[in-house]
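Sample log: Zn-dependent protease.
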Amino acid sequence: MIYGLGALLVVLLVYGPSLWVQLVMWRHSKHKDAMPGTGGELARHLVERFGLDGVTVERGRPNGDHYDPAGKIISLSPRVHDGKSLTAVAVAAHEVGHAIQFTRNEPVSQLRQKHMQKAFFIRKVGTGLMLAISSLALVAKIPHVFAIGVAVGVITMLASALMYAAILPEEYDASFNKALPILEEGYVPAEYIPAVRSVLKAAALTYFAGALTEMLSLWRWLRFIR
């Protein structure tokens, strides 16, 4: 009984933030006539206003909101690019915040370049090694070799979790040092600012929620090794 409650608590702590992020985004995704424009229109206006040379805004894939510093592209999902909702406006401003970080070459923008590329490489190579070693161990029936494959998988997932955690300051800066002050200038009616804060917080914590999910995967692997 106690074990079951403990396991349930772990699941809630791990998946709770991710579910909260999705709930906040959905809750404020309703169309509002009070919005002066769509997320895409706001993003293009802010790119021009802040003189972000070379930065473009495109209508991207569903749930694909991000800023690509290499291509200088602000990619917004259809619901954000075409939407006139608090979620659309806040997420668009958040991604513009990233564009401002990189265009100005701010120290916080170095976090992604410093940590994410290495972590992606480790994850890609680690996943391949884990599958290869585990397959070899299962065929040859060598438990010790299989344990090595599991260990590689654990290190890979840990690297992925650290990747998300390491860029939290960059996400927070994009939401609350960039997007929020801009939106408070009159781009969003004053009565909607509290809701916008919630959306920006959800946008900033998206990677953190992903990190917790990765840590649950890591915990499962550790139990398996035991």
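Observation: The two ends are 21 Å apart (CA to CA).
Observation: The chain has one domain: 2-225.
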